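F.,

This is the one I mentioned.
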């Protein structure tokens, strides 16, 4: 199992950053390789990804969600991954978004890519694109303020 940890500061209030992150279907707008996400229930999402020409579909379940603090998930089957995104208020209009993700590379290509830091680089790029996305909007496109314990 490999672990990636990345963070970024965004120039929006913590509630705005958190609310946008709960809009999983908007992820393809800032996450490389994510083709589509469907939220099938309050706690279940279906992902379609395409990386290096390889398309994958998988389900992930939200295991914890606390408004303005954290969203945690784990995959239901393959590929094995789990993670948490936390939101930290730095000021009234600045938030630190932190991602910690554990994943199991599948096959030689993914294992080599993991050793070369490809996933870490991708997560960093996704966070930079999230920053650009939310700062350009200035407000969230929606929100879900429910809790999952």
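My design for it:
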């Amino acid at each position: 199992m490999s672990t990636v940890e990345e963070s970024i500061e965004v120039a929006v209030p913590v509630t705005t950053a958190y609310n946008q992150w709960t809009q999983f279907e908007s992820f393809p707008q800032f996450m490389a390789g994510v083709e589509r996400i469907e939220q099938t229930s309050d706690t279940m999402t279906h992902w379609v990804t395409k990386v290096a020409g390889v398309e994958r579909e998988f389900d992930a379940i939200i295991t914890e969600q606390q408004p303005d603090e954290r969203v945690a998930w784990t995959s239901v089957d393959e590929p094995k991954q789990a993670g948490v995104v936390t939101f930290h208020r730095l000021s009234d209009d600045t938030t630190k978004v932190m991602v910690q993700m554990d994943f199991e590379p599948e096959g030689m290509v993914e294992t080599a890519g993991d050793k070369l830091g490809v996933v870490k680089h991708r997560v960093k790029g996704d966070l930079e694109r999230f920053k650009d996305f939310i700062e350009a909007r200035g407000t969230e496109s929606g929100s879900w303020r429910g809790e999952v314990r």
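Residues 118-137 form the longest helix (20 residues).

Talk soon.
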